[in-house]
Amino acid sequence: MLQVREKTTPGVLGGIYCRTRYIDDAIRKAVADGFDAVVNLGAGYDTRALRIEELSQARIFETDHPDVIAAKKELLNKKPLFSPDYLVLVPIDFERQDLADEMKKAGYAADLKTLFILEGITQYISPEAFSKTLRFIASTTAGSRVVFTYVLKDFIEKPERYPENKNMIKQFKMAGVTDITGIDPLELEGMLLRNNLILKEDVGAEEYQKLYLEPLNRKLNIMPIERIAMAEKNR
Fold first, then answer.
1. Is 120 exposed, middle or buried, given 0-12, 13-18 or 19+ CB atoms closer than 10 A?
2. 47 vs 185, 212, 229, CA distance in Å?
C-alpha cells in the first residue's frame, strides 16, 4: 500500500514523516524551554498527547469540530488507549464559534506561554481565517510560538510546474475541496509581521533531507510543494 501511495502521490508520505518529526521536536523544545501549554488547532486524531512523554509537564489543548472531538473521546476510552490528565479536548465549530471564547471556556488563559500547532490546516482555510488565527496567537504572552505547514501558492496556481504532484489538485477536487489556499514563501515574513509575529524558521524538502535523512544515510522522496514555518510572538 505504501508503494501504491508513493506512486500516486510521490513524496507525500516522506513529507508527512518529516513534518511530524519537526513538530515533535518543536514540542519537546518548547517543554524544555518552560512553556506552559501546547494548543493543537484542528488536531483530528493526532496521538502526540499519548506518545510524547514530555507533554506531561504541560497542558495540551486539542481543538476540532464537535463531531471529531466526540469520536476521539470515545476512542480514547477504549483500552489500550487512555485520556491523559493533561489533555483538554475543545470542540469548536469555527464557522459559528469564536476560538478565543471557546479556549477560555476550556480553561486556557492568554498568559500561558504556548506553542500553537496547525498541521495540514492552512490550505483548507481562507487567508482571512488564517490571519484571524494568527491574531489570536499574537494576543497571547510574549515568546509564544506557532508552527504551521503550508502549501506553496505557486503549486496551487501553476501545478504544471510540479509534474510529480500536479494530480493532487484533481484529488483535492474529487474530495470536494475546491478552494485551496497557498502561501508564497517570499511573502511569509511580511504576513507574519503584520500579525505581530516574527518568522524564526521556514523549511522544506531540502532542509528535511539535511536535518533528518542525510545523518542516517537514508533515501526518502519528499514532496517540494509543502513547507513548515515557525514563528514567535513579538515581544
1. middle
2. 29, 21, 21
